[in-house]
Amino acid sequence: MKRTPLKRKTPLKRGKALRKESERRALLRAVVNPGRKGFVLLAEVCMVCKQAGATDPHEICRGSSREECLKHPRLWLALCRRCHDAVGDYSLWPIERQIACRIEWETRQTIFEANDIRGRAQTAMTYEEVKRHL
Questions:
Q1: CB distance 48 to 101 below 8 Å
Q2: Domain count along the chain
């Protein structure tokens, strides 16, 4: 089938550049960002490598559900820049693996709190001891 090229009578108008972020998303980010920064400071260490200092908040959910994920801190990870770049590869870091990192971090935090409240050393009860019961 032969097609004829489109012929415009008037050229396309060039308007303003597209916004990088919608007004709604900018408002949501303004509300959520202070909490995300506080979360990274609370975590201190990267939830993946557990060695480098955490610098970046990462949302576990992607795509169309990412905006909703911003409202749920339990679906965030605090990562170093190197791990944040690596977690972007979905084939190596599916959601299940990211959630496992979050669960492990929360479990370790709970153990530290329990040891502290009981007046024990931070190593009195370890993650490995608790993991045996999971």
A1: yes
A2: 1
